[in-house]
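Project outcomes to date are best conveyed with an example. Our students and postdoctoral researchers have been running inverse folding experiments weekly, and each run begins with a structure described purely in tokens. The record below, which covers 235 residues, was selected by the lab manager from last quarter's runs and is presented without edits.
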């Protein structure tokens, strides 16, 4: 997956930082909507760093610290300043997420007003597994950890494990199934590339997506999409 195409913006050498910021801030690419699904600066940084690895880009943006008011970028080798283009992308993503008065000075990216964090819609099911699936689906591209999910659900990690086990599952099983179900739906109904689907559904990289999808469905994402499209033409 090409990094520029994933963001839906022109990142060619002649583009200024200001142009990149404006382009990313108004981007509607699915990958960008995944980056800003929850306007939490730490989550946004986590996803953006994963996208950089996913696309194997160099140089990459490195993060030294994230607070509720600023992001500090790590210095490069020999205390070199961070890559300006990567920093501009991060600034644009923050603006796209709804942060106001975003500015950069040195290795600091600051903002004055941060948007509120939305809460997932209530789940009426009596099954805790269904509540967990809905939580994961609310921000599927996130690298969910059981500790984070338990906190959102108002449980201790041990309690969440115990309740899921009583319902015949585990956190990892539920997470894999939620990702696979959404990936399969996107492969059937969208024109997203395989790489975009993989990132959107929270897989660490394309190899992880291929491996986990094959394990759950019994075929590769590409073969699954071809088969589904062929079946639709027959129907």
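After processing, the design step wrote out the following sequence:
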């Amino acid at each position: 997956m090409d990094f520029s195409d994933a963001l839906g913006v022109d990142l060619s050498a002649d583009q200024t930082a200001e142009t990149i910021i404006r382009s990313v801030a108004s981007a509607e690419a699915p990958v960008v909507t995944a980056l800003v699904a929850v306007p939490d600066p730490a989550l946004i940084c986590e996803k953006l760093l994963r996208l950089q690895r996913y696309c194997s880009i160099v140089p990459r943006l490195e993060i030294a610290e994230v607070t509720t008011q600023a992001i500090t970028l790590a210095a490069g080798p020999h205390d070199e300043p961070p890559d300006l283009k990567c920093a501009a992308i991060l600034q644009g993503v923050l603006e796209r997420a709804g942060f106001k008065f975003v500015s950069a000075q040195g290795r600091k990216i600051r903002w004055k007003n941060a948007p509120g964090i939305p809460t997932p819609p209530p789940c009426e099911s009596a099954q805790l597994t269904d509540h967990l699936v809905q939580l994961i689906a609310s921000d599927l591209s996130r690298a969910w950890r059981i500790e984070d999910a338990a906190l959102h659900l108002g449980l201790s990690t041990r309690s969440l494990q115990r309740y899921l086990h009583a319902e015949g599952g585990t956190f990892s099983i539920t997470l894999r199934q939620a990702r696979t179900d959404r990936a399969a739906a996107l492969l059937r109904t969208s024109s997203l590339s395989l790489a975009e689907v993989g990132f959107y559904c929270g897989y660490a990289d394309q190899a992880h997506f291929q491996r986990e999808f094959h394990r759950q469905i019994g075929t590769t994402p590409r073969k699954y999409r071809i088969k589904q499209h062929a079946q639709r033409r027959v129907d």
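The domain at 128-234 is CATH 1.10.10.60 (Arc Repressor Mutant, subunit A). Strands lie at 63-66, 70-73, 103-105, 108-110. The training component of this project remains on track.
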